[in-house]
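Students often ask why we bother encoding 3D structure as a string. The short answer is that it lets us treat folding as translation between two languages. Here is a chain of 111 residues written in the first language.
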Amino acid sequence: MALHGWISPNGIMEQLEKDIQAGNNALQAMPYDLLTDKDGLNLREYQVKAIKAFSYLNLAQASIFTNLVTVVSIAAGIVFLGESFTALQGIGSMAILTGVYLSNHIKGRTE
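And here it is in the second language, the structure alphabet:
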């Protein structure tokens, strides 16, 4: 028996038995209409374009962008909303930027 809200061992086995390739194929075949539909996600056109552009990136490139979202959000809050910049945000931003730099410049990196 699993803890409330946690997946059970049998649930893990069921997840492993799913056909990942069939799921990927279904996702590829899904039209972008769901993203703009009022009953769907109701995204704006620029958001749909960003999703489409993101799908052309490989995993390494995509992970860099997802890591930089926090830093860009902090900068946007400071520039556009007049938010203050705290030492903790500075430390966090430096940690993110250092991680991005190291992940792109360490020897033996795989493509």
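Translate back mentally: The two ends are 41 Å apart (CA to CA). Keep this in mind for the problem set.
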